[in-house]
């Protein structure tokens, strides 16, 4: 059987690096992409490609490169994000160009990644998975984090829709959102390896979960009430 490829967009030292290591150990070829990736292949199962999610065309180019090198990816992780924190009462005091740039990273490039992933998945047999690293923004958001919450809420909407549209083709779309044991957002201590373990379980169909995967490190999937808990 051909070796499967996972593509991690927005791959840094925590969630990204853990995801790369976890999928490598499970036999996947891994492509990591971020602004600081150098374009070098470190071995025949690992590539690190430069990509700026503020430029949606960069995501199209990334998929083109991966297809030319290794064929269609069967797992895509969209992990990059941008934020412009303000005081809650200054939520709208954000220059238009900053709002647009962050929307490109949090939403537009996520849209392009979902569209390109759906195109890749249509050409592959077997299970296919796209994971969007979520936050609880789609439950109501956190005051003072407008650009992140707008983008993540839009991303969650697209994931919910894609999960309905593509599920019968064994293509699953999930928004994975780590919470504290009380169901609150992770303001600190985000679990890189805990995310990677959930991502692999979803990709390998070891669990069958809804589009919105809220999880607690050490416990796994936990369904919380759909209301803002801060
Ligand atoms: N569940 C929660 O409550 C919660 C809390 C906090 C964060 N999160 C989510 O967790 C994710 C990040 O986790 P992490 O920090 O552990 O991940 P990470 O893999 O350690 O880092 C993410 C990487 O994304 C890359 N990135 C940022 N902007 C980019 C851009 N414009 N183009 C390309 N790459 C870009 C950065 O690398 P370069 O600088 O090299 O580009 C960064 O190192 C985000 O999706 C965030 O929303 C969730």
UniProtKB/TrEMBL annotation:
One of its GO terms (molecular function) is oxidoreductase activity. It comes from the Eukaryota. Keywords: Oxidoreductase. Pfam families: adh_short. PANTHER family: 5-KETO-D-GLUCONATE 5-REDUCTASE (PTHR43669), SHORT-CHAIN DEHYDROGENASE (PTHR43669:SF4). Belongs to the short-chain dehydrogenases/reductases (SDR) family. This is NAD(P)-binding protein. It comes from Saxophila tyrrhenica. The lineage of its organism: Eukaryota, Fungi, Dikarya, Ascomycota, Pezizomycotina.
């Amino acid at each position: 059987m051909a070796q499967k490829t996972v593509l991690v967009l927005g791959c840094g030292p925590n969630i990204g690096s853990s995801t790369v290591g976890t999928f490598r150990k499970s036999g996947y070829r891994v492509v990591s992409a971020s602004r600081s990736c150098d374009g070098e292949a470190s071995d025949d199962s690992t590539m690190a490609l430069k990509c700026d999610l503020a430029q949606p065309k960069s995501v199209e180019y990334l998929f083109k490169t991966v297809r030319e090198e290794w064929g269609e990816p069967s797992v895509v992780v969209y992990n990059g994000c941008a934020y412009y924190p303000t005081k809650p009462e200054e939520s709208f005091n954000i220059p238009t160009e900053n709002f647009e740039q962050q929307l490109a990273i949090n939403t537009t490039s996520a849209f392009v990644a979902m569209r390109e992933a759906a195109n890749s998945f249509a050409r592959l047999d077997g299970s296919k998975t796209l994971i969007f690293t979520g936050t609880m923004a789609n439950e109501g958001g956190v005051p003072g984090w407008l650009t992140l919450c707008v983008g993540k809420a839009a991303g969650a909407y697209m994931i919910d829709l894609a999960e309905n549209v593509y599920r019968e083709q064994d293509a699953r779309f999930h928004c994975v959102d780590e919470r504290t044991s009380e169901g609150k957002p992770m303001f600190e201590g985000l679990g890189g390896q805990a995310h990677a373990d959930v991502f692999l379980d979803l990709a390998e169909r070891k669990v069958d979960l809804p589009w919105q995967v809220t999880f607690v490190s050490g416990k796994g999937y936990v369904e919380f009430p759909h209301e803002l808990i801060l």
